[in-house]
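Researcher: Next sequence.
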Amino acid sequence: MESIIHSLRDITIRSISVSEMNNNVYLLTSKASGAQLLIDAADDLPAIQAMLADSAADTTAEPRLVQIATTHQHWDHVRALPGLVKATGARTSAGADDAPELPVPVDVVLDHGDVSTFDGIEVTAVHLRGHTPGSIAFVYEDPEGPAHIFSGDSLFPGGVGNTGNDPVRFTSLLDDVTERLFEAYPDDTVVHPGHGAPTTLGAERPHLAEWRARGW
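Model: Next structure:
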């Protein structure tokens, strides 16, 4: 399975789509140290392991998976998580309110604004309440280019994630996405969602009022 690759100054971002639900799995590799952060071990452990093997080309050091981060608790985002933890011994992280529901123990429980550093990779946890109670977006700020948001199922091209037709959950999610993403990062910021194609905050920003009016 071929990876989509973004080569930034300090890191390489790879992604593959797995399963019948087209879940995106993201791998961030530090070019200098080889440290790696994988976001959402969704499914298809062999495909994820192949991406890890291919990532040896992304660093001058020995690649090593340091942590597996999970954006949220839903089953389609964690099917390969137990197998990947067993195969690699990597530590795990997830949002505080979703961590108890994951199929493996969570080593690093994340709250809003927590910054995780992995020998050349620094990501900020952004808590987005609504799709699940503990959904986390992970933000990498490139020193020489746009920021990259790994939004899980909280933000997609065309709208926020599913909130079960619950107006309270929808308002919570849209409020958080507006305040914590759109008001915090510029238009060129790249959004890498849990399913489907990437977008930018600038492409989505004009539609925020429309989303609020339609209620989903």
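Model: Residues 167-182 form the longest helix (16 residues). The chain has five helices and 15 strands.
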